[in-house]
Known about the structure:
Blueprint: E1 55-56, E2 64-65, E3 77-82, E4 94-103, E5 108-111, H1 112-115, E6 119-122, H2 130-136, E7 144-149, E8 170-180, E9 187-188, E10 199-200, E11 212-213, E12 226-232, E13 244-253, E14 259-262, H3 263-266, E15 271-274, H4 281-284, E16 292-298, E17 315-324
Antiparallel strand pairs: 1-2, 3-7, 4-5, 4-6, 4-8, 7-8, 9-12, 10-11, 12-16, 13-14, 13-15, 13-17, 16-17
GO molecular function: isomerase activity
Family: Belongs to the FKBP-type PPIase family.
EC number: 5.2.1.8
Amino acid sequence: MLYFSGGSSPRTPRALRTPRRNGARRIAALLTVPLLAVSAAGCGSDDGKGAPPAVSGSWGKKPKIEKGEGDPPSELKTKVLKSGNGQKVRKGDAVSAQYVGQLWNGKEFDSSWKRKMPATFQIGTGKVIKGWDEALVGKKTGSRIEIVAPPDKGYGKKGQPPTIPGNSTLVFVVDLEKIAPSKIDGKPVDKPQDSQLPKVSTKVEKGKAPSMQMPKGKETAPDKLISETIVQGDGKKKVDADSTILTHFTAKTWKGGKQLDDTWAQNGAPQDIPVAQIPGWKEGLKGAKAGSRVVISVPQSEFPKQQQKQFKDGVVFSVDVLDVK
């Protein structure tokens, strides 16, 4: 994604992502969102090896996890530390959660609490490591879950260098906050779309980005930032300069309509993104309500100096605002 503060992207935390087969450099890779996603429910049988490490602390606050004792278990272990009374997580749900992950030896490698923002990830569809997919389906929001994932439910022989060595057993504590909306629910705006912008579909399809038709004969963004709401939501809270939004979005270059980013295609789950982190979003999304789709044309001048050459023709975004935080 188009992040400019360095570090990992604001998407699914790196420690939970399934390995990618191609290293295509996406525009999103320049941004910073946590990358957190995993899969289905189960506890794993007792194989006689190390029990899940002890955990202390209250729900909603970063827990303290002791280091593992003895040999780590060879099967997935799941323990409900606190039972919630919210919705059950179903296969394919996007879940908003806080979590911390550490190695069996107690070394922490990831924490949403440190980023001061919950992560959103899709469960049960292979978008995250098997240990999450198999531990969280069927659990209720409001619960705190401890997961001990052996290598074959995590990152196997290769690991995720430099933070996760090969053949690592991973220990997570996850606070399930809520089931996130997966698509917008606004209504198409009843007027012609701005002719200066690409024509973007107002059709809302779960799991699929809207089509975007670039204007003929135009290969450079207009000189000034332009934004237009094409699907109007009715959420109570409006986007401002300090907002973080839960979003699905797609991004293309003006010249040739080259695909730069597409959250639907990348990992299927919406992302929590501070609007100030992506060029043009703070201004282009100002006043937008949850449930809306906004088209934003961002000229070269809006990008940081070091990236203006990379995006010299400008970028156009179609942004679905699922929630405003």
